[in-house]
User: Fold these one by one.
Assistant:
Number 1:
Amino acid sequence: MASTSSLTLSQALVARAISHHHGSNSSSSSTLSLPTFSGLKSSPAKPSTRLLHRSRRSAGASRPVRASVAEPATVGKTTDTSLVEKSVNTIRFLAIDAVEKANSGHPGLPMGCAPMGHILYDEIMRYNPKNPYWFNRDRFVLSAGHGCMLQYALLHLAGYDSVQEDDLKNFRQWGSRTPGHPEHFETPGVEVTTGPLGQGIANAVGLALAEKHLAARFNKPDSEIVDHYTYVILGDGCQMEGISNEASSLAAHWGLGKLIAFYDDNHISIDGDTEIAFTESVDTRFEGLGWHVIWVKNGNTGYDEIRAAIQEAKAVKDKPTLIKVTTTIGYGSPNKANSYSVHGSALGAKEVDATRKNLAWPFEPFHVPEDVKKHWSRHVPKGSALEAEWNAKFAAYEKKYKEEAAELKSIITGELPAGWEKALPTYTPESPADATRNLSQQCLNALAKVLPGFLGGSADLASSNMTLLKMFGDFQKGTPEERNLRFGVREHGMGAICNGIVLHSPGLIPYNATFFVFTDYMRAAIRISALGEAGVIYVMTHDSIGLGEDGPTHQPIEHLASFRAMPNILMLRPADGNETAGAYKVAVKNRKRPSILALSRQKLPHLAGTSVEGVEKGGYIVSDNSSGNKPDVILVGTGSELEIAYKAGEELRKEGKAVRVVSFISWELFDEQSDAYKESVLPAAVTARVSIEAGSTFGWEKIVGSKGKAIGIDRFGASAPAGRIYKEFGLTVEAVIAAAKEVS
Amino acid sequence: MASTSSLTLSQALVARAISHHHGSNSSSSSTLSLPTFSGLKSSPAKPSTRLLHRSRRSAGASRPVRASVAEPATVGKTTDTSLVEKSVNTIRFLAIDAVEKANSGHPGLPMGCAPMGHILYDEIMRYNPKNPYWFNRDRFVLSAGHGCMLQYALLHLAGYDSVQEDDLKNFRQWGSRTPGHPEHFETPGVEVTTGPLGQGIANAVGLALAEKHLAARFNKPDSEIVDHYTYVILGDGCQMEGISNEASSLAAHWGLGKLIAFYDDNHISIDGDTEIAFTESVDTRFEGLGWHVIWVKNGNTGYDEIRAAIQEAKAVKDKPTLIKVTTTIGYGSPNKANSYSVHGSALGAKEVDATRKNLAWPFEPFHVPEDVKKHWSRHVPKGSALEAEWNAKFAAYEKKYKEEAAELKSIITGELPAGWEKALPTYTPESPADATRNLSQQCLNALAKVLPGFLGGSADLASSNMTLLKMFGDFQKGTPEERNLRFGVREHGMGAICNGIVLHSPGLIPYNATFFVFTDYMRAAIRISALGEAGVIYVMTHDSIGLGEDGPTHQPIEHLASFRAMPNILMLRPADGNETAGAYKVAVKNRKRPSILALSRQKLPHLAGTSVEGVEKGGYIVSDNSSGNKPDVILVGTGSELEIAYKAGEELRKEGKAVRVVSFISWELFDEQSDAYKESVLPAAVTARVSIEAGSTFGWEKIVGSKGKAIGIDRFGASAPAGRIYKEFGLTVEAVIAAAKEVS
């Protein structure tokens, strides 16, 4: 075959170029497991243009990026090219037809990426269509989520029950399993929820991290019980997003060698040619980040190039690999290919016809040719066999390594060890006053002892967030069995990486941390946790003006309200030790709902009356001297202001008032209680209510009603010692007492 | 001088290396205005280690980065080294002493960056201390905002009134002008508000963009009336944040040659050595982005190296320059330098003493030696002279180029042309139904005709956000006079760049755009707009489930509430043409408060009763058949749901009800109205109220009260045609009618 021999030639030339550069120490090699791509620099001799190419639009230093080289010895081609092409065109037309029927969607990416998609799902990836949750499957993430018809077509061909012909026909319709972007909670076989650009590659970093961590902890010299790859396709849009750079920097730092990313280099984004806003050299940037970089010049029909690139990527064990695959968006469409018009709209009947003619596709919409169907049909038995083989392996492992197997099983199934919550510390009013961030650290360390899948870290604030697990070291390239993650100052990447970790295995429970105000940097990832039912634990310290001198850029004001408004997330603001422990109990239990813990920098006393059980109800009575559920006034506080409400209650009682003090740690949990319980805490007849919280009063009318008063902060903060700001902002016992008298 | 001669030698060697690499076409050159740094590659000959260095911890391809080379001919050293060192130590000790007195703050960066700070403010930058707002001043941004004592010390030495000795002594105290991070609204001389990492470099890109744009529009062959540099210092933390990569990619794409960034490469972040989380090659990444990169190896005492790097940077006109300055954090502290302990805490009395001894600093706290004071005293007269010179230049310009001068003056002063608002379109109920995103485009184009400082663009969604200005081309490297900004898919960078633009000159009015849900990607920048009184206009389309098929990842739910809770920002959700025009009127007028316009993808009718005047009040009556301010029921809607409320009102009136329909386009503006006005719209006695909005009901209790009903969406959205989702979610005329009957 012509392509093979020219590729063999290329291979030899590459080896020569390398040996020239490396000098006499490096002998000409015929294998392709090159140490790192970075060894390849331009040599004084004019390079073969077949080997060394310049990025089409490299604005920066234009450095040569080597095209991938086929490796005939290791590539097992399972079928002839014409059938591959037929399969690839099947994928293209399933995407075209589904978008056309919905008259909505993104045909361009699936048409361009069908070849790499085909090779991944048909030749490379190990999975079991009949059990999309098989633990040791290869993971695939479509970071460019708008191209979801690519993934739906592949899942359909591979035999997943979740995407049948009717599902393709119901693309983007109410109640379908094929929504407009990949949603793992709707479509088994989809690993993570993508669409908001850049997040998928970060999710993939989390998945690959999880694999590396579990492999390091559980693999034995005689049994690689954890062993899979993570593949991801990302586009120009993903590359432009800052989050992808954050996560990619960490992926290289951590040496995630089993992460293989395909960059769909199609030069088109919604506004047109990427020339108008994206002229950097992505290759050079990724080399700077520490990735192995390969360029597949012909992603449209260069099947062998793609195959070779994957083999090369697999051979590089210590670095993630970026395979830049140059494709034509909307490949096959005679009039719309290579233009933004094919990105996000149906082709239209006329162009669909023209594309059918152009690609010589005589079939009806949604038709899968018999030979293609037959070819793909092997994946169901093959997948079952793979899983059965692994199950047998695990059974053997279990016999030999009982303890490890039990731990791993708990991680795989998500079954928490019985009585885990007993590990959480308890406190009394006599316990020394402490910041809830410190109490949080006690909880984190207690949980790490009993929860095998508990791991996490901070965005360069471990010593401020108090998130280090003392019995573990750092998860690093050389110590992946450890559990302290060091994210650097990369909040957005951190959140999305944790989404990947938690979705890798039900028993992995990642937490992450920064200052509460910097949830603004990672809000898009937090929202995906909430939407994607990913029980990440967000440990957010410095939760109010109580942080003091750092000032308004660091003081959250609107953040509590902003998360209370977000669906499917628990916003918890504990007031002391028992409430912090309760918050962690809730957070660990809620595996399908993320939790945010807002924690104080400043010391707080342990209050009589707080409890884990109370926390689980969201709002509860902390102290009360009324009878018949008829207090004169109800004082409501959260977090560090519960103490203020508590003290105000004591003062008012001295004056003869019947005062109820309520902790409102989680609005969401309170909302879920019975009407009777709610009435027992906040009786409708008692309209004299005062709330105090060092944050926006927005939303508090719901609790205090139109006759009550909400004390809070409806301006930005200030730089000064915390006590002074509290006083200047009127968050004081005196203010609560005055308000209570005003409303009652 | 030894350093000079060795640098001259270096220069010659560099020239030789270049000529070798470039081959015979490139002749040996003795000048340093090299075309681009990218020309420098490793040559086969072993490079001189004096010239070619490897990054200490380069994980990726380790590429040689050339150290800066002094240029004796152009560097005007204004003083002898001992006085420079004394001035540098003054800066160090002002920072040490202020942090010590406050017992709070970050001494490490000022101690390490004092040399580059000194050179910038004493030798390089053009500014007028007595008029911090002089238009043509060089801009300086401390992206690593925690090191603000560096800037305060420099402003103090330079003679700014805003930072006097007492201000230094009141560092981080209530009411002081020296808050814990730089806040431009507190401290004249500070250009932008920083602290949240990574945003400052993006602000600087905006400042440099503004300069390039205005220079292209207003400079004449005989008069460079706009001509300044933008300098920025960023640290490891800034480099890790994704936003800095986004903005830096754009800076190179746009060819912002007058942007010069100092990367304080000190290897330390809060959690310790950057080795634990940040091992990429920043140099290589920036070369990939298209920057000119220089490495100053000795940032602690290498004054000539720093000077030479700046000269070299200035000589590179077509690219921004990153000067990597390797420094020691906390330089001078014998026991804490080069450790995280000096990053964010006071040194402590003992270590302050030790540092005084170590740096031979015999002075009292806050003392500025007389010779240093005298040396710096020239900046007040020099600054006045610079401004006077420019004023004279402008006077001449004004005579010759009357029209341009008037436009530029309007941009400099922020005075809007009289009657500008008359340009906004008006609509009647007979105008064709249209999406508010399209009506928005009509407003944008109308405003661009009358507002000389109006410019903006979208994060790769111009054709969906409808934000193109039709009479202008794209702002690009070669066409910087144009006004359509192409941000690519970089929302966070976009927001922070616009903060830089709007803070460059009061008359610059930038808008930016993406889908409303993706405000999550840029929320940290939006918050800085609000805190920093930066009147950026956020054009956010696809504002609800009304976008349909893209599904829940793209459908905002909690976003309206989340911004209503944020201080100092206007959240506007117009319902039709007149409301869209009104929203723009409000947004343009509010130069110290950012505005977010939430706009529909779907068509909406123009309703009778909507008005610009109504919009300005935030909430107002659109239709009413009641009398005596006693309607049976009040129906409240916003944006696309106002139509539903409106129609429900019509139906209910047919049944004999007295119904008031209220548009609630901006809660913030309504809050600012008189009690009498509020009572005229929402009379306290009328508790029968129903609201409808396609978003979270969180917060609506404030409007509808405990007896009213809020119809909204308290779950995530769904992928389906918009009409179907509205129906399934119960956002219908029928639902409003039913609720109205229930509550009245």
Number 2:
Amino acid sequence: MFGPIPSTNPVLAGDDFKAWHNAIGGELTTAADDSWRTVLREKHPDMLHLLQFPYNGEPPKRLVTSKTITPNPLHFVRNHGGISIIDKDRRPMDESRFPRIEKTVTIQCSGTRRIEHIQLYGGQGDEVPQAPWAEGAISTARYVGISLKKVIKDCGGLLKPAKHLELYGAETYVKDLEVGNYVVSVPWSKVRANEVILAWEMNGEPLPKIHGYPLRVIVLGYIGARSVKWLYRIKAIENPSRAPVQAKEYLYFNQQVGKYNLCATDGIQIQEMPVSSAIMSPWTKQTVVHIGTIRCKGWAYSGGGRWPGRVELSADGGFTWYAVPPKKLSKKGRWTWRTWEYDLPCDVEGWIEIVCRCWDNSLNTQPLNVRAAWNWGLHVTSSAHRIKVYSVNKSRELTRKRLDKFEQLGISLAPLTHYDIVPGQTAEEYEQYWRDHDPRDVDD
Amino acid sequence: MFGPIPSTNPVLAGDDFKAWHNAIGGELTTAADDSWRTVLREKHPDMLHLLQFPYNGEPPKRLVTSKTITPNPLHFVRNHGGISIIDKDRRPMDESRFPRIEKTVTIQCSGTRRIEHIQLYGGQGDEVPQAPWAEGAISTARYVGISLKKVIKDCGGLLKPAKHLELYGAETYVKDLEVGNYVVSVPWSKVRANEVILAWEMNGEPLPKIHGYPLRVIVLGYIGARSVKWLYRIKAIENPSRAPVQAKEYLYFNQQVGKYNLCATDGIQIQEMPVSSAIMSPWTKQTVVHIGTIRCKGWAYSGGGRWPGRVELSADGGFTWYAVPPKKLSKKGRWTWRTWEYDLPCDVEGWIEIVCRCWDNSLNTQPLNVRAAWNWGLHVTSSAHRIKVYSVNKSRELTRKRLDKFEQLGISLAPLTHYDIVPGQTAEEYEQYWRDHDPRDVDD
């Protein structure tokens, strides 16, 4: 039915989701197939596919922060079902009646860097399609739309006791073997602040199909899960939505809530993401040949309208911190990340741990390790980002000489883990050492 | 040539070693085949095979410390070549001329727990047959033999300037594509202290072929690498052996010595192992259902004639330490490990980190993390042993109720990482919670 997987890199196929959609029938029979064709048409060929269906993908590390505005084909995608089939001739409303809003907005999935959660302990993440996101489930785009507040006012305003707005997407959502639409809610206070936009344009183009064409919600400073795509209905309600996306998923648990004592009400519904950051270059387990400083690149972000005030890097696992100079950070925006680069001083030869952390304008900062914020839901991995790098420091004489010798002999550097038979020390040098130094053992 | 691998569990085949031995020819043509047949005949069927040839194997975790004296079929094996073919009628000497020595001795490979070194950073360990030892490269046996000192005295004593004794094994040893015998040395001071034994009996039986029949060296309190098997020659020399096992391997480097700046003389030749310990039960990523204490088992050891004085356990990653009561430690011996068990208090639900460490009679203790002692040679992983365990605490009401419900419904516990569709909280309970509690968001 779905044909062979193309020569890209899907990690999880999503067979259960495909089978469920097929079983429901009707237009959903071809949902998985349609979805994958849209991926191939709309997304960059190098996207890292975490889940084929529902489609979940992020840009490869080298492209995550290569531009401060993410090109549409590289913007991460976190879908929960198929891509809705929309009748192009039915426009939802006459948007010209409302002031046009144009905003640059960073959207982050609360599963960003979930892979670190999974690597530490697992949880339920490695069996169900809780996509194993790396650092790329965050992207930035310029949206055009109108304020939801104005639309509601135009409809006559909100009646008491309504305090929340429930947003319905045409996307299917499966939870505990029950199927429904993708539904969440946002508080009226957020709408009233003009921080909820109904958008139809992304980086100067109509919304791509995969990103919610023709109309989606953009909730400024909230997790991506609230920015409903393929919006088809808005309902005023008294309490936060009881739909499963809001009530049973995207919850932030305490460390001691787990598989056998879990209650949804023990989780905080995730709305704003806390301050976080990530290193995009170099990458973990890479060998970096340098002469005393290592060029590092990455991003930093804080939810809720806060912005990165300072980014700090450490080459010694978080003992000593260097600040990225302000001019090496991209410019501030109320709803956007800042990308950065920095030449991190490093004298060490061998394995080091590079760490980055951010302080936002409210002076919030990140927990120092994954354990501190690990939770059964595998959401919000906002701890200081740590990567292991093998430092080869050519400013050290012995290292420089050895590498020069390799070059003379025409030997290219093998992967670090390959055994190397180029002799380091000659037999003469060995004997000379022991003539010049004390023996291993004491003599008494 | 070697036939199919039996239905056991070899991890690395050792194809290069097999090819080298085959290329040398003569008796070595069948060395790999002979070696594997000996494994099948002499070793326990559940041995964990780390390398098929040269044979490297350790007992499975549940059997490492099940007895304080390791049965011969379960004793770990670290061979470097084939098992020597010995003419049974040629006895090396008349041992009845010397006092008989009987000693219980723990032998530890300096690669014990190397897997933690490899998991942290890799190094060269994952490409060359540097066996990825876990915690089982340590075993204890009762040996019968004679003192090497007496033999040398009997031969007329040592002449100046000799200060070391070079020990030759019949085993082949390949280093940097050169082949030789397995050769190491021990200082005369160690021999003079009567701490080097020539042994022919192991746990009341003649030495198994795989353990050095008919004669091997046992160097008390030194790493296993010095206890040469299939001993055929002893030579008095002025300096430590220049043979590669002693001069180029079994070296303990500083963290900043690596692939491109390595000099053998920067490594300390490893003789005595430092104090270390390991947890054998429970095991990492296991789910442990308990009522407030977790039964833990393991070993502790210190080289050089020192012994474990105290073993401590932590259920919180090394913040709080409990001492194993002396009666729960096996008895002291100058050259032996101590096995232990302890019911570790644990109130926590969810992921915990159990850590153990030992203090020896000289009050030496272990570094607290692998990083602190990581070295390019991947030797001596003596840091406090850490395992991740998922604690299910039935002394907590909610957990007990949930598990009772599972039992009523006849649902057995799935692996932790499998998604669970048994509902935790009912819709009524959910609504009741929100009637009793403040809403998520503030209202202003």
Number 3:
Amino acid sequence: MTDAQTKRRTRGGGGAARRAERTAVSIETARYIERNIPNFEILTPEALEIIEANAETVLAEIGVNFVNNPAALERWREAGADIEGERVRIPRGLARKLCETAPSRFTQHARNPARNVEIGGKTLVCAPVYGPPFVRDAEGGRRYATMEDFRKFVKLGYMSKWLHHSGGTVCEPTDIPVNKRHLDMLMAHMTLSDKPFMGSVTDPSRAQDSVEMCEILFGKEFVQQNTVMTSLINVNSPLTFDDVMMGALEVYARNNQACIVSPFIVGGAMAPVSVAGTLTQVLAEVLAGIAYSQLVRPGAPVIFGAFVTSIDMNSGAPTFGTPEATQILSGAGQLARRMGLPFRSGGGLCASKLPDAQAAYETANTLNAALLGGVNFMLHACGWLEGGLVSSFEKFVMDADQLGVLHKLAEGVPVDENAQAMGAIAEVGPGGHYLGCAHTQENFKAAFWRSDVFDYKPFETWDEEGARDTQALASRRVAHQLATYQEPVLDPAIRGALEAYVAEKKASMPDAFM
Amino acid sequence: MTDAQTKRRTRGGGGAARRAERTAVSIETARYIERNIPNFEILTPEALEIIEANAETVLAEIGVNFVNNPAALERWREAGADIEGERVRIPRGLARKLCETAPSRFTQHARNPARNVEIGGKTLVCAPVYGPPFVRDAEGGRRYATMEDFRKFVKLGYMSKWLHHSGGTVCEPTDIPVNKRHLDMLMAHMTLSDKPFMGSVTDPSRAQDSVEMCEILFGKEFVQQNTVMTSLINVNSPLTFDDVMMGALEVYARNNQACIVSPFIVGGAMAPVSVAGTLTQVLAEVLAGIAYSQLVRPGAPVIFGAFVTSIDMNSGAPTFGTPEATQILSGAGQLARRMGLPFRSGGGLCASKLPDAQAAYETANTLNAALLGGVNFMLHACGWLEGGLVSSFEKFVMDADQLGVLHKLAEGVPVDENAQAMGAIAEVGPGGHYLGCAHTQENFKAAFWRSDVFDYKPFETWDEEGARDTQALASRRVAHQLATYQEPVLDPAIRGALEAYVAEKKASMPDAFM
């Protein structure tokens, strides 16, 4: 595969491409995380069994709705479900049985094979914020997002060492017609980054466009044989699968592309106001959604998703980084692992309107829960603000920096002879100090993680330099990253074919803004 | 005991005290945390055994120094250690054997028995920041701490629902002579709060004063039979026990009062630049220190402490909330539990100069690590800023609020019939919503934790109200807490006796500022 890709990448590449390849700056990206630490498991086996039994009861007795989707109802009928109108009641055990053909782990390929990611098992892949209609930065405040903002976020993602994935709708480019913006978004991910990315899900035809653009980028045969997109299919909770999302899922599953089947729940509104009840509903929805993907194409890669926020019962506002959100994340991870499926949950989620302390407490609570809860695909790992209404430039680089903490923590604790450092303890002895000893000299460079954003200077120096807070430090980093960004090399023939595809598609339909 | 205390509290109390008792506002404080969740264990049993064997080697072959303390050397000689100058080499197994008389769990009594805390096993007790010479607030900036600042922090601690303990040196009152400030600090904890507190450790005579003031507050017999103070004994790492700290420990152990024996380590400077090496040294130091406490008085209550920061190898500055700090905290907790001892580690530690996003990321990383790492006594749980140089008023209430997250998370996940919510799922069905259903109405009040500091309002409302960041919201809360503070009732006779003790002690010596 690597050979094929290499060939593909250089096919038709002239002297310009080769020159570009020679002069391009290589942006270092850490390999996806492979955990060498245990998962934190909050639920007992008995609790998990209760929830699993209840989820089967929900599917068998209450059922789920597949809306405006006669083909789906027919697939379910053939599989043995009981159909009544749009309601699908699934006999106990059937959904779980159907899910068994889904792979426990898969590779998502990037156009640069060094950026391929493994999703499942002990891995953790970090992808940026998804979906906000607004952006914010310190200079310009909060405003509707544009395609230019979108491109900047893709560039920042490409420049982020600890971010493995370019994501999808890093913000909604509201200046581009709704029915055409997916083309520009995909073009940005394909040309401004060489990390893996997500496809469009807002209409089945846009999912099809995503597949076709990937066929240009990767080659048609390669796409059919390999997963090159992981896309986000939200369940319309409670217990409802609408035709738009299912239509996109059908396109992706048929083409061997990965879907995250993700209940989207504001707790107390779209699910019961209890952790166990919410987990029951999450599991029922995921079982039905993933089973359906396997009815479309057995073996299609999928991810067990769970996006669940708590709610402020005073105001009805969604809340993040709360203990209940952590409990649900942790429990959902356990349920996913018992199904042998990759797991997706939140990353740097927060409710705050600013990249301030509230945002950071909420975000850090979620990031820690996600690492320890066994998340394999972390969407919204950086840049999310204001409950997902805003993509923040400063928070993007702040969070992306914190992902480094997760990488180092996941490595676990070496206890080889060098790590034991018995020679150093003997050399230094009581009352001595370690800064100058041989062991320290040999090991200090890799010993401690350090932030590339935070300030570690003495108070006096920091004060003289303007007493900058984290937002100000992050603003400076955003500007530096964008100023030093260099586009990764892409075969000009492929670029030309992509541009022609986008132009042709755009010309084929009138603009739509709804 | 409760009867005796009640009697003591009303003894000699006249009509004024009774009137005060009737009119006093009752400040709600949560009970200390009793975990109903598993601990996160980062080290394998094999790794733990290697570290334990190495720590015995350190004690037997390298040894520890007990400085300026002939009585300590004599105690060690009698116990079977090898003494050479001030160096104490402890045969394999001896220190661990001596530690066996230390209790695995103890009660620290407060003058209000409802505020007593249990330290050990699955509990977590939260105490505020300890030691900074500076304070900071949004209005006044950074400045030297005064006794007035100290009193404000004690009041804020008393008002904090999720804080179980009044702490010790919540800031250094630099306007009071060094040799007298412990008297004013104890007086503040004893009169402005009714939560448990810590004693002075800066000189053995000041530890003795702490015991004598407690004898006035609790009664002499009560103090000898019960633990009423938990005090912080730092080890002068590496492997050195100085006469000041050991002198204080001797006073407390003789009087049945608890000590935290706590290696104080900036990684790479006072310990090897590796997690396993640092844990080896931590364990050796704790074994020696706690064994010594048991030589002074077998059965004296103690806590296995570990204060370890990582370091920025570029500048030498200590760093907080880093992955290595989490690894060491987690590993030290495992070592403590294998000794059957209560465990202390950091709380809201951070390097940031401001209560901004950096501070909150670093703090939240540490708070999460401490909850999951099995910490029993969390010092610096709130208010710590700038690597411990500054006590921040705003961060005090921000962190104290976040401690609520830990309380709820520690409760675990109920799976009783009400929590399963199967009736609600059936009632609402596919496509419905839960806000109005009976289960939600019955459960919503206790369902989700909410912050008392953060902003959950819609953007427009928040913007109209001044677009306040977390620091501004916290400033308002500090002012509100101090304005509504009411002193807890104290028997005037006891207050008078304490005042007389302090006045007499102060008059007995000249001021010293060094």
